[in-house]
Design brief:
Shape: rod-shaped
Structural class: alpha+beta
Strand content: 15-25%
Largest sheet: 2 strands, antiparallel
Strand order of the largest sheet: 1-2
Order of helices and strands: EEEEH
Distance between the termini: 76 Å
Number of strands: 4
């Protein structure tokens, strides 16, 4: 996310961007979730929002997938437990008959 080719006008103060002197200036390091490229750049916090929202959506999808997988494992385990319980009860009923 290169900020160099964008106009350096701040919509918050309606003046030219103050760069690193601004309280909204943030140094970001990491990996861009859309391109996979490394990031080590300082820019306005507002300009980072689209990338951060993309990363948040990605993390939410991964969490939902993990939750669904866990749910499926629990359903399988409960079916096995119910089968064992049912067969045990049927055996006890058969012994009493």
């Amino acid at each position: 996310m290169s900020q160099n080719n964008k106009a350096k006008f701040c919509p918050l103060i309606k003046k030219p961007c103050k760069g690193s002197e601004c309280m909204w200036s943030v140094q970001m390091r990491g990996t861009d979730p859309t391109t996979g490229s490394e990031i080590d750049e300082e820019a306005c916090a507002v300009s980072w929002l689209p990338m951060l929202l993309t990363e948040n959506v990605k993390a939410s999808h991964e969490t939902a997938a993990a939750t669904e997988s866990f749910r499926n494992e629990m359903v399988s385990a409960n079916q096995v437990s119910a089968g064992i319980l049912t067969s045990g009860l049927m055996a006890r009923i058969g012994d009493k008959l």
